[in-house]
Every structure is written in structure tokens, then in C-alpha cells.
Specification:
11 strands, alpha/beta, 9-stranded mixed β-sheet, Spore Coat Polysaccharide Biosynthesis Protein SpsA, Chain A
């Protein structure tokens, strides 16, 4: 049984942290650890974390005050980990799976020594039951990101047996990977950057087509439009950073235009309401891209563009 290290960067997440950590405490899998980096918290986050450290020796935490964003925290705490496999988890996600058998099936892909990671196969917001009760912002993100990932699967992956493999990293997000392949990431798109790092080392990354696979899901079901806008600015800055560094050489014609057309058409095929949601999502995404060109953000400043809780 492979040891898994869950790594989590936390800054003032008292409103959702208890729910997230309870999920990790109850995972029906024996060989794992949870390592938390508290990054300059001034709320009840540390108090909540301490409660789980007392409940289980699988939980460890470190008080940090880096305040340079998630990549810097992960770079600090991965050095404290001992798992063969790393799962980088946001504080507002839960790792959702049905049973240990399903998780074993999921992790079995690493029996192939050439597979270095598993990319995000569905958006964390993609939960059809939750979508029904969510607000406008959440619905926009759920559908918009679902079609965006589907575009990438169609265009930049290939099928081999029961799995799909990434053939071009582009903007696939990888948060589950072999520890030995970790490289420090410095951009706002750490999960995009990580995908490229793993491929550059000669390893393959897989994605799934089955939404029932073990995967991350969002704790929240509401997204304020202001927070969505900040997220889009941050993502635009991340793309710019990665393009400048040569990590993700994509442009208007080979990626942005065809992906936007695909997302727009896919949304309207689902009906008027989803078409409206997608259209609004595209407008906010485009506006975020425009704003990012006029404001100067580095990684440290960009990570301040986070959801307000």
C-alpha cells in the first residue's frame, strides 16, 4: 500500500477548515499523512488544526509566515513529507471517493512506472447535485470549467486502453503525482507548471473520463462574482507568467480562440440557461484577461486575489 502525503496551504480558513480536515480524518485508507502549512493565520485556523493533530498522529502542521502564495508554502512543507505519492489539496476542497477499493483502483495507475501524475479530470465544482442548489457564480464556474477541461481532453489527450494520456501539457492541472518528480513552482499557475515539469522529466500524466473516480470536490457552493473576477485576473496573470517562461507556449490561434468557441457552443447546446451562464463566464474571463494587462502582479501580489470568506 503506497503512502500518500496530503499537503495543504492554509491562510485564514476557519469557516471551512473543520469540514475539510474531517474529510481527511475519515478517509478509509491506512497509509497516509496530512501536512498543513499555516501561512500567517490570524483567525481560528491553528486552533482547528490542533484539534485534528490531537485526534490523529496522521496530522502534522507547521507555522509559517511566508505570505508569498501557495507554491511557497507547498515547497516548504513537502520537505516534511514522507509519502511516495503527493496530493496537493486546497483548504476549500475535499478528497471525495466511495470506498477503499475505488481508491485502490484509482492509485493503481502508478503501477506503471512511467506514469508520473494524475491531472484534474473534472472541475472541483462539478457536482450535479450541488449545482442545483448553488448560486449564479458557482454554476458559471462549474459549467465553464467543465467544458474547458473537456476541450483540453478532446484536443490535447489520447486514449490508450481504459485511460487517457496527455499529449501536450497546455493548461492541465496536476495535483496528484510522484514525490520524486516534484520541482519548486514559482508562478500563480503552480498546477499548470507542475504538469510541464513532470512531462519534461519523461513521465506521462493520465486523466479520466469517469466522473465517479476519486477526485477533489469543492466544499463551497457559492461564488461571489467579485471573487470570480479576481480569480480570472489571477489565472490570466498565471498564463502570462508561464508563457514568458516558455513553460506553456500557447497563443490566441492554437488555444484561446478554439477553446472559447468550443465552450460557447457546448454551453448553448445544453439550453438557453446554460448558454447564458457560459456567455457570462466568457465575458468575465475576457475582462479579467484585459485587466491583467494593465496591472502589474507578481506571484506574491497575485495570491492576494483570493476568495473573501
Amino acid at each position: 500500500m503506497r503512502k500518500i502525503s496530503f499537503l495543504m496551504a492554509v491562510h485564514n480558513e476557519e469557516k471551512i477548515l473543520d469540514y475539510t480536515l474531517k474529510n481527511l480524518l475519515d478517509i478509509p485508507y491506512d497509509n497516509y499523512e496530512v501536512i498543513i502549512g499555516l501561512d500567517g493565520c490570524n483567525d481560528r485556523s491553528e486552533e482547528i488544526v490542533k484539534k485534528y493533530v490531537k485526534k490523529s498522529n496522521k496530522f502534522k502542521y507547521y507555522n509559517l509566515n511566508i505570505r508569498e502564495g501557495k507554491p511557497a508554502v507547498i515547497d516548504a512543507i513537502i520537505k516534511k513529507s514522507s509519502g511516495e505519492l503527493i496530493i496537493v489539496q486546497d483548504a476549500d476542497w475535499i478528497f471525495d471517493f466511495r470506498d477503499e477499493e475505488k481508491l485502490d483502483e484509482f492509485l493503481k495507475v502508478f503501477d506503471n512506472p512511467r506514469i508520473g501524475g494524475i491531472a484534474e479530470s473534472f472541475p472541483v465544482e462539478w457536482d450535479e447535485n450541488k449545482i442545483k442548489d448553488s448560486d449564479l457564480g458557482y454554476k458559471m464556474v462549474a459549467y465553464g470549467t467543465y467544458f474547458w477541461i473537456k476541450f483540453q481532453k478532446n484536443k490535447f489527450s489520447y486514449k490508450k486502453g481504459n485511460l487517457s494520456y496527455i499529449k501536450t501539457p497546455t493548461m492541465f492541472l496536476t495535483n496528484i503525482f510522484r514525490r520524486e518528480l516534484y520541482r519548486p513552482n514559482s508562478s500563480l499557475g503552480d498546477d499548470f507548471e507542475r504538469t510541464k515539469d513532470i512531462v519534461n522529466q519523461g513521465y506521462e500524466i493520465v486523466i479520466f473520463d469517469d466522473p465517479s473516480i476519486p477526485r477533489m470536490k469543492a466544499v463551497y457552493k457559492n461564488i461571489r462574482l467579485n471573487d470570480l473576477f479576481k480569480q480570472k485576473i489571477r489565472t490570466a496573470v498565471a498564463r502570462k507568467q508561464l508563457n514568458e517562461d516558455g513553460v506553456m507556449p500557447i497563443n490566441f490561434f492554437n488555444y484561446y480562440f478554439p477553446s472559447t468557441v468550443f465552450i460557447f457552443e457546448s454551453g448553448w447546446k445544453k439550453g438557453i440557461y446554460v448558454g447564458f451562464l457560459i456567455s457570462l463566464w466568457i465575458v468575465i474571463t475576457s475582462f479579467g484577461e484585459l485587466i491583467s494587462k494593465f496591472k502589474k502582479y507578481d506571484t506574491k501580489k497575485g495570491w492576494l486575489l483570493r476568495a473573501t470568506r
